[in-house]
Amino acid sequence: MELPPALIQFLGSLAAILALAGLARWLKLGPAPRLADEAAARQAADEAVSGFVPVAIGLDRDGHGAVMRDAAGRILLLRPHGVHFAGRLLSRETRVRRDGDALEIDPGERRYGKARLVLDDVSAWAAAIEAVGS
Amino acid sequence: MPDFSPTEYAVPGFVALVLIEMIWAWRSRPDAYEPRDTLTSLAFGLGSTVSGLLFGGLFFALYLWLWDYRLFDIGWAWWAWIACFVLDDLKYYWVHRTGHRVRWFWASHVNHHSSQHYNLSTALRQTWTGFLTLGFAFALPLVLLGFHPAMIAICGGFNLIYQFWIHTEAIDRMPRWFEAVMNTPSHHRVHHATNPRYLDRNYAGVFIVWDKLFGTFEPEVKDETIRYGIVKQLGSFNLLWAVFHEWIGIVQDMWRAPWKHKLSYLLREPGWTHDGSRETSDQIRARWLERSGGAEKPVASENPIASEAEAA
Fold first, then answer.
1. Which residue from A85, A94, B185, B252 has the highest number of Cβ atoms inside 10 Å of its Cβ?
2. Co-location of A120 and A94 in the same domain
3. Are residues A93 and A116 in the same domain?
4. Residue A9 belongs to what domain range?
5. Cβ–Cβ below 8 Å for B53 and A50
C-alpha cells in the first residue's frame, strides 16, 4: 500500500513533535512554580490581574498557589499552570470545600479546574470565598 | 507559475532550531520550556498546516480569478519580488494589527499568543481558524495591482520563516542598525507580553519600521520582567479548548448580550463589554498609567498618529 505524500508528511511531522515534547520531558524542562513568600504572591497577583493589590494573602504552605483579597473585596485565586501561575477572580459560581487544613476551590470553570491549597487560616478563607457575590 | 512552498523546506530547520534552543534551556533556563506547552504549541503548528491545505487552495483560487482583472502586468522581474515582499510585509502589519483590534480576527490569532512561554515552539503555534476571518481580503490590493498570487504566497512564506527565529529569549539584542529596521527577538518579545506597557504593540512581521511609521512601536525596557500570554491566561493545556475558546466566548457573549450590543462583541476590540465588566488593552494601560502617576510613559503615546486615534 502506498501512502499519499501529504499523509507521510503529516505522520513525519507528528512523530517529530512527539519526539520534541518527549525530549523536553526527558530533559526535565519546566520546573513546577513556587510562591516563596508574600512578596512573590503580590507580584504574581499583579501579573494575573493588572493592578490587583492584595490586603490579605492566604499562601499555600508549599507555595503551590494562593488566595488573595483586595481592598474592594475581590478574591483572586492563583494556581500553578505549567511553569507559571494562572489566576481567576472568584465569582458566585465558585465552590469551596474544606478538607482539614486544605481548601479545594473550584471557580466553576471546567477547563481551569480546581485548586487545592493548604492554608494557615482555612476557616476564614472558606467563609470569605463563600461570601463572594452574596 | 513557480510551484514552491518555502515553509515546507524550512520545517527540518525549525525542528533543528527548537532542538538547539531546548538544549540551551536545559543548560541555563529550564523554565523556558514546559513539555505540555511544547506539545500544544507544536500540535497547533501541525493542525494549521492541515487547515492551510484544506482552505488555502480556496483563497488561492479566488486570488487567481481576481488576478485576471489586474491593473498592471508586473511579471516576475527581480524588482517585482522585492516590491512584493515589502508590500506583503506592509499587508502583514495591517492584518496583524486587525487581528489584535477586532475580536472576530482575534478569535483566530489568539492561538498564537495563548502560551505563557516565549520560545521557538511558540512561533509554530499557528491558528487553525484563519479561514473564518476576512484576513484573506488584505491581500486583494496586491493581487489587483498585478502581483501574481504565487509570488505573494512565496513572499508570505519567507515572511513566516523570518518570523520563526525572533520567538526566543535566548537572543538579547541584535546590532543597533538591525534593531532599527528589522523585527527582532527584543521587539517581538514586547508584542507577546501582557505587561500593560506592552499590550498591543509591535505588530511588525519583518520590518519594524511599520510600527514606527504607524505609531505602535514600543521598545523593550531592560529592567521590567516580561510576562507572556494573554490577559486572562487559559490555565489549560487542552488543545481543542486552546483552539476554539475565543470563538466560544464570542458566541456566548453575543447570545447573552442585548440586541443592540450583539455585533459589538464580534467587531469591537477584545475585552470590550457593554457593561464594563471586562477591560480592553487600552483600558488596562490607562489604569496602569494612572496608578504609576504618569511617571511611566510608553513611547508610542508620544507619537501623534497613535494619540489621534486608537492606542492600538
1. A85
2. yes
3. yes
4. 1-30
5. no
- The dihedral region occupied by B196, where left means phi > 0, alpha psi between -120 and 50, and beta the remainder, is alpha
Write the pLDDT tens digit of every residue in B205-214.
999 999 999 9
SS3 B210: helix
Question: Which residue numbers of B have CB closer than 8 Å to A's CBs?
Answer: 8, 11, 15, 18-19, 22, 25-26, 30-39, 42-43, 45-46, 49-50, 53, 116-117, 121, 194, 196, 227, 229, 231, 233-238, 241, 245, 284, 287-288, 291
Domain match, A23 and A45 both: no
One domain, residues A44 and A103: yes
C-alpha cell at A1: 500500500
- Do residues A9 and A44 share a domain? no
Both A92 and A43 in a single domain? yes
For residue B25, the chain A residue with the least C-alpha distance is: A29
Residues of A with CB under 8 A from a CB of B: 6, 9-10, 13-14, 16-18, 20-25, 27-31, 47-48, 50-51, 79, 81-84, 86-88, 109, 111-113
Interchain proximity A50–B38, CB inside 8 Å: no
* Pairwise CB contact (< 8 Å): B49 & A86: no
DSSP A60-127: -TTSS-EEEEETT--EEEEEEETTEEEEEE--TT-EEEEETTEEEEE-S-TTT--EEEE-SSHHHHHH
Q: What is the pTM of this model?
A: 0.92
Same domain, A77 and A13: no
User: Which residue in B22, B37, B46 is closest to A17 by CB distance?
Assistant: B46
pLDDT tier at B294 (50, 70, 90 boundaries)? low
pLDDT, tens only, B103-139: 999 999 999 999 999 999 999 999 999 999 999 999 9
**Whole-angstrom Cα distance, residue A80 to residue A87?**
9
Q: How many domains does chain A have?
A: 2
> What are the CB-based long-range contacts (under 8 Å, 24+) for B122-125?
B122/B41, B122/B167, B122/B192, B122/B228, B123/B14, B123/B163, B123/B164, B123/B165, B123/B166, B123/B167, B124/B14, B124/B18, B124/B41, B124/B42, B124/B44, B124/B45, B124/B164, B125/B40, B125/B41, B125/B44, B125/B45
Question: What are the tens digits of pLDDT across the range B66-92?
Answer: 999 999 999 999 999 999 999 999 999
